[in-house]
Model the fold of this input.
Amino acid sequence: MPIYRQIIDQIRYQVVTGRLKEGDKVPSVRELASRLAVNQNTILKVYNELCRQNVLKVERGDGTYVSSSKQSISVAERKKAVASVLREAATLAVQLELPVEQAGELLRKEYQNIVSQKAGRGKK
Amino acid sequence: MTEPAIKIEGLHFSYGKKHVLKGVDLEVPKGSIFGFLGRNGAGKTTMIKTLLGLQKPQAGRCLVGGLDSVTDTLEVRRRIGFMAEDQQMYGWMTVSRIIKWVAGFYPNWDDKFVDELAEVLSLPKDAKVKALSKGQNSSLALLLALGHRPDIVILDDPTLGLDPIARKDFLRHVIDLLQSNGVTVFFSSHLLYEIEPVADHIAILNDGVIIKACKTEQLRESVRKFALTPAPGADFSQVPGILDALKVGESVSIAIDGCDPAKKARLKEMSANGMTETALNLDEIFEAYVIGNRGRELTAH
Done:
């Protein structure tokens, strides 16, 4: 997976698990590039992509923040996005001859794991 | 379009009978971090030396900021900061002594900037060069390459011999000190995974020619591997961009460059019963370009 995809996934994961909350400021492009030792253009691309997906938003002249806007994309689009990622997992499951019930169970577990992490953080 | 920082056209170079560069063409965009890859002995250092005007090419030319590196050598060197592969420095000099010594060669040396650099790179000024660690040695070489504030910095295998953490630190300095200031960085390496996070563009030199030049992120996306069982009469030479093909029993495994739906469809037509697609890791991509057989094994009969 290209580097920018990996970083996008990591930030999105931190947002959905509540490690990064609505309104939190994320590091500047320069700062994150330096911390990860990654090209600044890569980070720029990551932030642009996450803004497009409404995960982050840019306050001009101030910085980049975790967006507070709720999902603005349609259910169909959301399904499509999830399906595209699941294809890979499904391929692997078929290849390794894992029954569909067990594969489904894994997805459920991962999902609940993330939701409960977020709930746990919300209480604190 | 702005003028590229470095432009190389039809470059040929031989050491006696040994033809090392066989027509290199390359453009390095201004302000980019450009990763220059190749195996040991591919001709990376030879090309860099020619680019700097340290040796004269038999044919072709190198333009640095629009200036020819053979006819305008002095001005070209003024604009370039260069860090040599495994740079040797006088061991008996102290860090501050060697800085003063190198500064003497450059009328536009920036003492204040160099002091800041020494701070950032945490170089012990009173230590003797021979007492420095490998990591400090490369930091010092980097500092000496930057003291005259060049627009273009050429680093020849700068992380050779550094441990993984020192490597990351070094690359971080490249991003902090150079990219942030709009300097064009051209650096060579034989490790694709090291170049990937920092480079905007990548070029692969093999056997004296550039076999691939593209944006870094495109590299991973364009190379794909397919496994399929050929249908009777399948002619893979019809499909452009095959990097490597391997026969495994009845089936073949094909690595293809510039993979798009059209090429995929072509391959699928030649398959007896479907095919599987996989992405390659960086080492495999490098290997496919550099030692791939270009499908010769399939067209041989």
Remarks:
- The two ends of chain A are 35 Å apart (CA to CA).
- Strands of chain A lie at 25-26, 56-59, 63-66.
- The longest helix of chain A spans residues 100-123.
